[in-house]
Amino acid sequence: MELDHLAILRDELAAFHRGLSQDLTVPVRHCGDWNLRDLAEHLGQGNQWAAVAVRERHGRHQPPPAPADVAPWFAETAQLLTETLAADPATEAWTFAPPHTVGFWRRRRCLETLVHRWDAQHAVGIASRLDPVLCGDGIAEVIEVFVPRQVKRGRMAQPQGAVRFTATDLGTSWTLGPGEAVATLTATAEELMLALWNRRPMPWEQLTGDADAARRILRGPLVP
Description:
- The mean pLDDT is 97.
- The protein folds into two domains: 5-128, Four Helix Bundle (Hemerythrin (Met), subunit A); 133-217, 2-Layer Sandwich (Nonspecific Lipid-transfer Protein, Chain A).
- The chain has helices at residues 5-19, 36-55, 70-84, 102-124, 132-152, 189-196, 211-217; strands at residues 162-167, 172-176, 181-187, 207-209.
- The protein has a four-stranded mixed β-sheet with strand order 2-1-3-4.
- Helix 1 packs parallel to helix 4 (102-124), helix 2 packs parallel to helix 3 (70-84) and helix 2 runs antiparallel to helix 4.
- The longest helix has 23 residues, at 102-124.
- It is an alpha+beta fold.
- The protein is globular, with a radius of gyration of 18 Å.
């Protein structure tokens, strides 16, 4: 199934914005010492940065701090981003990994917003559902984009072996690392993606194969 990342991004940005009617001082558990307002500023600045990456084709933009009234400002950044990404997805853009196109940013900002929407709703105690197909795309993105980037930037060692991730609700598998998988981690797509983004523990109890080797391969950090 081909995902309409731009349509999903619009929905995810709107859902995050609705959450800004909550207490903005609530801590966001998986984002260091940030509160909900800090998370909104981070996501909104990322919207601005990605828009400049498309419009001006560079990654040097330093977004200014958000104003005190963060909710309407966030809505403006969301509109700026979605209007920018309405261009043909094949349009050339600056990106930090291939492909160097608008399509990269549609996917990247969609998945970034998905994770942070989950962060925000989790912080205020709202039950949150993540689409399995979109989570599967998020698993693939970690393996295709972020692991190579982490290795290239010296943040983690090149994996010396492979681990397979199998999503029970999709019947789909992805392999992280070279060669035949030494172990398989099996869970729902949501559980696997959130584990890869350090939002949930890795489902080690559902691992088959060489557990010690799998832990070494996944030591990471796999994501920034």
